[in-house]
Specification:
Low-confidence stretches: none
Distance between the termini: 69 Å
CATH class of the largest domain: Mainly Alpha
CATH topology of the largest domain: hpI Integrase, Chain A
Mean pLDDT: 85
CATH architecture of the largest domain: Orthogonal Bundle
Shape: globular
Oligomer: single chain
Radius of gyration: 23 Å
CATH superfamily of the largest domain: Intergrase catalytic core
Strand content: under 5%
């Protein structure tokens, strides 16, 4: 399938980048979804500015019939809707064929956070005092302390972290900035990483790329740590201490949110801390906390599993 897109679609993607501030990862996902959409339209003798509502319904049916997950189709449909609204707003076509299209229902997934004991085991799995050990310990502590997304963590610069105040500046989706606190454990791990014997040992004599000199987390070549490398760090330590085979950074984000709510944190504070645009996203964690409460109750209460006499 051709990866070339019509000029009008390229204009939409440029608008999403410049006017809406979408991240490179988001734009890459939009591009993949729109390449698939435009390829299907082309094979069926039409193009985005000429597609009709029935043809769009046929496309969605084709995607579902091909075995695509509901979440994938819903994400693709969201990109298509935005593009067609853009066409109308820019006068590229008079109508929006997606306006009356029913959405795709996606089953709500319930995150599976680690227990507090499991988190302690994960953090304790980082042993030694080498520069790599100090970096890994600081990364894991910060992820759990702040609930940061992995991209936010590896994107940190030295000036984004205030060790004295225990605050970190994170740049989330759409480059939205938020200030998040972290505690003594994460602060101590970051100080060890930044002290002699830590980050200074991994800094090269000459920086290869502009910006690497300000990166908080470095790889063994002295460049900014990548998302993929950070993901592997979390996964490897999870495997080392016997946790889920594919432990991901997002599980630490889930765990941070769930444990905060377990200990009485206000839902809106957790929403702000995680950078959720909608509180309904954060409420997923409330459901997780309640289910954990019910599990503990059923296991611990002497009459939970018996009918009253």
């Amino acid at each position: 399938m051709s990866t070339e897109l019509p000029l009008a679609v390229e204009e939409f993607l440029t608008w999403m980048a410049t006017e809406r501030g979408r991240s490179q990862n988001t734009l890459a996902a939009y591009r993949r979804d729109l390449v698939s959409y435009c390829g299907w339209l082309n094979a069926n003798g039409t193009e985005p500015r000429g597609v009709t509502a029935p043809e769009l319904v046929s496309f969605v049916g084709w995607r579902r019939g091909s075995g695509a997950a509901a979440s994938s189709v819903a994400r693709q449909l969201a990109a298509i809707r935005m593009m067609h609204r853009f066409f109308v707003d820019e006068g590229m076509r008079p109508d929006d064929p997606s306006a009356d299209l029913d959405g795709i229902k996606v089953p709500a997934g319930i995150p599976k956070p680690l227990s507090e004991a499991d988190v302690l085991s994960l953090l304790a799995a980082v042993t030694g005092d080498t520069p790599v050990s100090r970096r890994d310990r600081a990364l894991l502590e910060l992820l759990y302390a702040t609930g940061a997304r992995i991209g936010e963590a590896v994107g940190l610069s030295l000036g984004d972290v205030d060790l004295e105040s225990g605050l970190v500046r994170l740049f989330g989706k759409g480059s939205k900035e938020r200030i998040v606190p972290f505690g003594r454990a994460a602060g101590g791990a970051l100080r060890e990483w930044l002290a002699p014997g830590g980050r200074p040992e991994m800094a090269p004599l000459r920086w290869a790329r502009r910006g690497d000199s300000e990166a908080m987390f470095l790889n063994h070549r002295g460049a900014r740590l990548s998302r993929q490398s950070a993901w592997l760090i979390v996964s490897d330590y999870g495997h080392a201490c016997g946790l889920e085979k594919h432990l991901s950074p997002h599980v630490l984000r889930h765990s941070c949110a769930t444990h905060l709510l377990d200990h009485g944190a206000d839902l809106r504070i957790v929403q702000e801390m995680l950078g959720h645009a909608s509180i309904s996203t954060t409420q997923i964690y409330t459901k997780v906390s309640q289910e954990r409460l019910f599990d503990v109750y059923r296991a611990a209460h002497p009459r939970a599993g018996h009918s009253a006499a």
